[in-house]
Amino acid sequence: MIALNALNILHKLKLLRLLTKKYKNDEHIFGGITFSNRLGTAAGLDKNGDFIDCLGALGFGFIEVGTITPLPQPGNPKPRVFRLFDQNAVINRLGFNNKGVDHLVKKLKSRKYKGVVGVNIGANKSSDGQQRINDYILCFNKVAQYSDYVTINISSPNTPGLRNLHDDKNIKNLIESIENSARELNFNKPIFLKISPDEPLEVIKSIAEYVQKSILTGLIISNTTINKEALKNSIYEEFEGGLSGSPLMERSTSLLRVINQEYPELPIIGVGGVMSKEDFKKKLESGALLVQIYTGFIIKGPRIVSDILN
User: Fold this and answer.
1) Which ranges in the chain belong to alpha helices (H)?
2) How far apart are alpha carbons 239 and 144 in whole angstroms?
3) In this predicted model, what pLDDT tens digit does every residue of 39-53 receive, in sequence order?
């Protein structure tokens, strides 16, 4: 947050452009949207849309804000973010801390950044059952007009029971509810479903099939993992929360590759473990149309953008 606030100040003082570079044209058209390049930010970096303009000025091809919920919520108790610099990793148990969807809508309306902005939506921790589905619909209805695409986040490990939405009955209900809202709003922009890397492969394949048959566009593979086995230091294995960064790279990319091979027509955004240009290329080679970073930006700072795009 301190780094993002510093970036925001530099941007407002018009000094940020002195530190950024112009990248060669690498336009990519997808879903009727023109992306200046294929590198974007993952949800979690700018939860409330407070930093859209300064992040956009760094040269990203797209920005994804959120995860946002209907009501503001503080998230889980601190400390809740653990940076493992020696392993290029982060463990977080944030718990969808955000200022609520109405705050985000105001930020979307006032943004000056002309690039692509997607919105990642979730459910409040206090919601359960059908109310949890209703939370997604409420957020979707409020952000649809002001977003270039929408992501349905069912995969955070830090909201109790959220990953139950991967279950057959629940995912059908959620997808059908989103479809109904999209039709009512005449929403024809991309809609993605962000999934967990920890579900059984057959579950992910089943979800991919549902998405392919629906009006939803594709998948984002993947969110953080609760599996800490890839960490070198065993003291972190008992830490609660989702693991991201280099230890997630192989797991998320392998899942991306398998789903792309099984469903080659299904668009996929790759995220998880991208710390270098080589990681970025590996995601694309494995079937991702677009790639997002989160931990790479936290660990390496804004220079990772030029490292990847140059």
Assistant:
1) 2-12, 16-19, 52-56, 101-110, 130-143, 168-185, 201-213, 246-262, 277-285, 295-300, 303-309
2) 36
3) 999 999 999 999 899
Instruction: Read off the tokens for 171.
Output: 């995912």
The pTM of the full predicted model, rounded to 2 decimals, is: 0.92
Contact 45, 297 (CB under 8 A): yes
Cα dihedral sign for 304, 306, 309, 310? negative
pLDDT one-digit tens code per residue, 199-218: 999 999 999 999 999 999 99
Question: What distance in Å separates the CA atoms of residue 43 and residue 216, rounded to the nearest whole number?
Answer: 19
**Overall residue count recorded for the chain in this entry:** 310
Does the residue 18 lie in any domain?
no
Considering the domain boundaries, does residue 16 fall inside one?
A: no
CB-facing half-sphere around the CA of 232: CA atoms within 13 A: 7
Q: Per the domain annotation, does 300 fall within a domain?
A: yes
Phi-psi region of 294 (alpha: psi -120 to 50; beta: other; left: phi over 0): alpha
Q: Which residues are catalytic?
A: 156
Q: What is the total count of domains within the chain?
A: 1
**Rg of the chain over all Cα atoms, to the nearest angstrom:** 18
**Domain span holding position 288:** 23-309
